[in-house]
Amino acid sequence: MDREALADFLSRRRQELQPDDVGLPAGVRRRTPGLRREEVALLATMSADYYTRLEQRRGPQPSTQLLASLARALRLTADERDYLFRVAGHNPPDRSGPSEHVAPALLRVLGRLSDTPALILNELAETLAQNDPARALFGDATARVGWDRSEIYRWFVHPETERSRYPENDRNRQSRAQVANLRMALGTMGKQSRAGKLVDELLGRSPEFVELWHEHEVARRFADHKVLIHPEIGPIELDCQVLFTEDQTQALLVLTAEPHTDDEEKLQLLSVVGTQTFTTHPE
């Protein structure tokens, strides 16, 4: 671990960011440029004291999980993230599979969306980041572990809960879309990738998946209009817009309601309902 290089790198990246780059209010006039140390700590869900010690070259070696959180908080590129891991004494993450590192450009957009649900997914439909409205609508999807992190997996293995968000007459279309998305991911990542392992897992667990898989539908499908059912608020009609990274490995989904409608009022009501009454699954 190179404490001096780590401290200097963290400090310089922190000073290059402004509050509005990460969705924070600017507040009162700042005496020094960039984010405050406590703001980086907040974004990385770590203690301000621990982060301060890292910048002061006296902190213990951070874990890979903590480094990943710091990379996201500081909006690092993949190359910058790899450098961060190396100076902290760890091997950088493998880039051959779906990345846990969220594209900084998508995070910047997500940080500016505070009044409508938005979330970032990778190729296997694992939620990498979400804003508060999305958390209120879908629950905290980033807390899931294992294959349950993938919406595709949950759709076929836990249908009794995962499909309750959709009207019954729309579930077949959603099933086909999930399979077509996974077929696309498999073609890009290869049979030996996590996409291939997910296919094998689902072939052994879901007869419905087996039937749809053999139809060989291939597409990146995100319905541009859908109805989602919230257990407290009821059905909400939403439009879905998607922004992909240049390499098509991550997507930002933004859900909006038509202005001046009951559905827009229902979205606004989410801020009141919050996450207390709905802790199941993300889109």
UniProtKB/TrEMBL annotation:
Q: What organism does the record attribute this protein to? A: Flexivirga alba
Record-annotated HTH cro/C1-type domain positions: 34-81
The record's annotation in InterPro entries points to: Cro/C1-type_HTH (IPR001387), Lambda_DNA-bd_dom_sf (IPR010982), MLTR_LBD (IPR041413)
Q: Which CDD domains match?
A: HTH_XRE
Q: What is this protein called?
A: Helix-turn-helix transcriptional regulator
